[in-house]
Predict the structure.
Amino acid sequence: MTADPRTTGGLGRGLASLIPDLADDRPREIAVSEIRRNPYQPRHRFDEEALIGLAASIAEHGVLQPILVTQVPGGFELVAGERRLRAAEMAGVERIPAMIRSVDQHDQLALALVENLQRADLNAMDEARAFRRLSDEFGMTQDEIAAKVGRSRPAITNTLRLLDASPAVQAAIEDGRISEGHGRAIASLATHPEQDELLRVAVERGLSVRRTEALARDRRTAAPRGAQQDPTERDPELERLESGLRSTLGTKVTVTSGPRGGRITIEYYSAEDLTRIYERLAGAEQ
């Protein structure tokens, strides 16, 4: 079985690898009311049902893993452990075990990000926004971000590209309707309307990432090729029919017309793809 890259390498060492001698310290019990939320929390959505389950466990067994806080005037500020803190509040717990550390703002965001990455709690969009904040607010380079969170530089770059996607595509990634790979393929299209149309096709037809990448590539090159083939303005009705065929067949379709008829070109990319298109055409005829 292939190891998940999100649970190996730098992340696998845990928070102790980022905070010297963390494992040698003992947690303190501090009042929940004295803890402020982490303003650099990268995760935007919390599973309410999972929080309720965690709150029930905390009510019965207590908080088994300490949260991480830093001391600030008037109390403490959360660095990592947002889910445990929220669940403790839901359970009516007044005090919670915590490791107290002095960290700067760079580490505050990075540690919250690393903790969530270790638990696969962040979706790709949350990761992208957190990486952007590290870059924009703290001036970190992509190499520095990669080193901080235990990822490769290309992985950081690819995740950041999701921020170029339309709001609909970003929402689909957050909702789990499409994967990060689908999102990157769709975001490669120049305009949001183009992206939203490919999103619709990918979701309705359950396209694989590879198939979505092929469609995105075709749509990126369709306009220049069309211009070379036909320098005059195309018939809007012809374009509508061509678009309909592309959506129906899930592949690139080119319709050209002449004085005595025309030609429909349907492209495929593998024997399996050809079989799929044939079955769709044959099924339409029955």
Observations:
- The longest strand covers residues 67-72.
